[in-house]
Protein 1
Amino acid sequence: MMQLFRSLADSGKTVVCITHNLFHVDDNAHRVVVLTAGGRLAFFGSPSEAKSYFQASKLSDIYTILPSKSADEWARLFKSSDAYRRYVASRMPHIFKADRVR
């Protein structure tokens, strides 16, 4: 199934797959999203960046690492990370500019 998703993505389609089975994610996913309890964003980036960020040898290890901090802590840590700046903040529209604020 992951190979099918990869071929769809390679053909220019956007594919979103929600899974707890991470066996083929490393080889087939371009980006991963890690959510904490309550759906807080703990990470967004490539599979290799996720392993580095969580200091995990494999993606499935992240499941055992997440309970070490609260959802709020993970969200706060991610918001101050390079991955957040690269993949989230840099893509957000800058709605409020200094010259528009009164």
Note: Confidence is low (pLDDT under 50) at residues 96-102.
Protein 2
Amino acid sequence: MHCYVTHDQGEALALSDRIVVMSRGRVEQIGTPREIYETPRTRFVADFIGASNLLPGVVESASMTGAVVRVGAARLTSNEAGPEVASGRSVTVLIRPERVRLLPPGSDPPGANMLAGRVAEVVYLGEDLQVTVETEDGLALTVSMKVGSADKELPPGTAVTACIARQDVRVLPAERDAP
């Protein structure tokens, strides 16, 4: 067994079989690179590993099969509901930028969460575009998409619908107080 310490998240994901994420001397999560990225247990881990949309929310309802969370004026449905996800609780909703699809307004894919908004900014990053969408209630949502994957140009001001599958909405407990 070899141990390697790094602060480079990409390097850790690429080189590791298991990762230990620590904060202030405390273990936040241990897992495979995929587990750490796909199912972070805390806001710290989600923010530390990879790009993230971290949105404040309040749980409207939760059951063994999922949760409904109020985020601004929107209601987002998730396929998960851990023990810390209970009605009335403040939570953080994690949505990875590459998991958001932008569709024309009025699109209604079945079973998906949708947020209406307008393109605020588009940044060209070579093979990727980083699109910032401002929702109708002022939340900023970062979307990562491959160049050429958009059906049309997305200049600032373009109306879009951000579409997020239920399985791509992660509900994390609100941050605990720092020691």
Note: Residues 1-50 form one domain.
